């Protein structure tokens, strides 16, 4: 597994937002390897594998509390996060994650984190 990053959304998680995320991912990837299964996607973007999933912040607070504090967020101000993980570990993967997370952050009124291994 390569680097991962998150987008902490400052909006409530709804089916409409999940559909928008799925639509964005479908547009960003050609072809989409696996159809969305719940809140998880496996996609290929520019020949690079990327895994994406959505989690409610309150369900994973044990895993993201420090990151929330670093970003100056409270769990209630970021109801969910989108995690993106690259399948490879190169400069191109970091840049790809930055682009995807930046686009998703704009869509979700969110704050992206930097890719880390």
Question: Which helices and strands occur, and which strands form pairs?
Answer:
Elements lengths: L3 E6 L5 H14 L11 E6 L2 E9 L4 H10 L9 E7 L4 H18 L1 E3 L5
Antiparallel strand pairs: 1-4, 1-5, 2-3, 3-4
Helix pairs in contact: 1-3
Q: Care to describe what's here?
A:
- The protein is 36% helix and 26% strand.
- Strand 2 and strand 3 (48-56) form a beta hairpin.
- The chain has one domain (4-112): TATA-Binding Protein.
- With 117 residues, it is an alpha+beta fold.
- It is built from three helices and five strands.
- Helix 1 (15-28) packs antiparallel against helix 3 (91-108).
- The mean pLDDT is 92.
- The longest helix has 18 residues, at 91-108.
- The chain has a five-stranded antiparallel sheet, with helices on one face.
Class of secondary structure makeup: alpha+beta
Q: Assign the CATH topology.
A: TATA-Binding Protein
Give the terminus-to-terminus CA distance: 8 Å
Tell me the name of the CATH class.
Alpha Beta
Strand residue content: 25-35%
Rounded radius of gyration (Å) = 13 Å
Give the integer mean of the pLDDT values: 92
């Amino acid at each position: 597994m390569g680097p991962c990053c998150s987008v902490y959304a400052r909006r409530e998680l709804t089916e409409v937002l999940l559909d928008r995320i799925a639509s964005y991912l479908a547009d960003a990837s050609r072809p989409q390897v696996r159809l969305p299964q719940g809140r998880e996607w496996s996609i290929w973007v520019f020949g690079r594998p990327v895994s994406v999933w959505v989690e409610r912040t309150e369900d994973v607070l044990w895993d993201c509390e420090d990151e929330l504090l670093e970003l100056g967020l409270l769990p209630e101000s970021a109801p969910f996060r989108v995690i993106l993980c690259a399948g490879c570990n190169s400069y191109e993967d970091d840049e790809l994650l930055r682009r995807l997370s930046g686009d998703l952050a704009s869509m979700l009124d969110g704050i992206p984190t930097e890719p880390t291994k």
